[in-house]
Design brief:
By secondary structure, this protein is α+β, with helices and mostly antiparallel strands. The protein is built from two helices and four strands.
């Protein structure tokens, strides 16, 4: 008598067990990879925020210290008034017409408004300009201003950057 040969392949039970094990493995893998993707995006946002802050501080470094700063160099007159007060500050809606540092004080908008770069449209920029009266001495005759640039990333993380600027 001849026994029928069992067919090569998998039974239904073996397939169900295999699919279940595969599903569990993929679920564990996904729970490990998802936080890594979020951290990767945060790193990208931080790098882009640092790039934006550097561009903003570079833009501010090219602006006159105050209305009395001579264009092209020369003797710096010192009136004693170092910072803008209230109405003298520029309107943040008119950022394209800002000329001197104090006019940027109080700016609160996005990077595209400030620099004209659409890649920074989702990054919020806040600028504060303050006097550093502790540095007003014969060495820093014209005084000093502290520029604080705060960048809010699309993930709502706030990064602060500062630059000290003297009138010399």
């Amino acid at each position: 008598m001849h026994c029928p040969k069992r067919g090569a392949g998998f039974t239904l039970v073996e397939l169900v067990v295999g699919i279940t094990v595969l599903a569990i493995a993929l679920t564990l893998l996904a729970t490990l990879l998802l936080p890594l993707a979020e951290r990767s995006a945060d790193s990208l946002h931080r790098a882009k925020a640092a790039q934006l802050a550097q561009a903003v501080l570079g833009e501010l470094a090219g602006r006159p210290f105050d209305e009395q700063t001579p264009v092209g160099g020369g003797t710096i007159p010192f009136s004693g008034a170092l910072c803008c007060a209230g109405a003298q500050c520029g309107d943040p809606a008119q950022v394209g017409h800002f000329h001197e540092l104090d006019q940027f004080h109080g700016f609160d908008g996005n990077g595209e408004q400030l620099l004209g770069e659409p890649q920074y449209a989702r990054y919020l920029v806040t600028i504060a300009v303050s006097c550093e009266s502790s540095l007003t001495n014969p060495t820093w005759r014209g005084g000093a201003k502290l520029l604080t640039v705060a960048i809010t990333t699309p993930s709502q993380e706030i990064l602060q950057f500062q630059q000290l600027r003297g009138n010399f």
